[in-house]
Amino acid sequence: MTDRAITALFSDRAVPDGLQGAPRFSQYYTRAEMEDLDALAKSVADSIVSGQGLNIHFDNDGTLFPFVSNPKDVAIDPACYTALVRLQALPGVSVMSLTGREVSEVRDLMLSPGLGVTDSRGAVLAQEGQKRLLFKVVGSHGVQCLHPDAPDGSMGAVALYPFSESENAFIEKFQSAALAFQKDHPNLTVEIKHGAVGVNAATLQGLDEDRRADILSRVLRRLEDILNDPDAPALDGKKIFAVRKEGTKEIEVRPVAYGKDFGIRTFGDSAPDRTTLFLCDSLGAEGTDTPAAELVNRMPKGMVFMVRNGRADIPPPDSACAPRAVFANPGMLGRFLEIVADRAETALRPAPSPSAGIQRVPHIS
């Protein structure tokens, strides 16, 4: 692709000719200051073609899944899905989803496209309408791992991070506290997860907003009392579990000492000669992707790609979580990954056999 076409991947706005006129994403990055994306695509493809191998770890919401008003309605961007299926089919490529969602929920989301996928030669990699998980999924903030579906479509094996006996006792304590509130308010949604619990007051029917807020506030105070216990489990001096409030209707207790960085270390391929990409969107000071980005940037061949989604808080180039490239939205990232797939498939395609030519019969005198 030409430099102009590559530049256009950064933004859905018109891009003038030349690097100086390219869109500015923050006070830190302009197109002229960043590495040529065509060279970057070639570098990533070369890691596949050379046999060194490629790990692709990706966040879901906001990175490959465009934001929607209702999180239950999200769907993976078609260009991202198609590119990842193509890359996964190449030798030495490992693709892994990293998410705070339960792995079973992510599996349903990954099955939703049902898109037919072919490589650049027309070989079918995924049948149209096929409902099959093709990627490894690490969920619940790094403590669950769901392996790809079997060829017959049956769900793959699930591996769970083994919490210690004291951690499990603590988990049971805060999960039981949430269930006790559900017993008093049957329409209160309580979701039990591996090492976590979610509470949603939006399903409390027949109550006004103030009453719902009061119930959720009492749940929050009870959970905070448990989490603030001096004997609460800790890892390296940091409490393992914390409560997070989502808007005015949801709260969740989850293992904050574990996360996407923990998922990469536990379930990813750590061979130092492999190139590792982390595709993400939340790299602010409190960003959920920041620890994993810092981990990948410390790897000898690690690269962080950020999807901006309108954010202004892009880390400066000298920060520990600085992205190698910034894309405007999931679709633009998907197009870049398709270019990588095109390059790798073309380079790995067997050369046509030379023509046998015309055989001459030797003259016998």
A few lines on this structure:
The protein is 31% helix and 19% strand. With 365 residues, the protein is α/β, with parallel strands linked by helices.
**How much strand content do the residues show?**
15-25%
What is the rounded Rg? 24 Å
How would you write the strand order of the largest sheet? 7-6-5-2-1-14-15-16
Q: How far is the first residue's CA from the last residue's CA? A: 59 Å
Percentage of residues in helical conformation? 25-40%
Q: Given the structure, what is the number of helices?
A: 9
Task: Sketch the major β-sheet.
Answer: 8 strands, mixed
The succession of helices and strands, N to C, reads HHEHEHEEEEEHEEHEEEEHEHEEH
Derived from helix and strand composition plus strand pairing, the structural class reads: alpha/beta
Mean pLDDT: 83
Judging from the principal axes of the Cα atoms, what is the shape?
globular
Low-pLDDT runs:
1-34, 356-365
Number of strands: 16
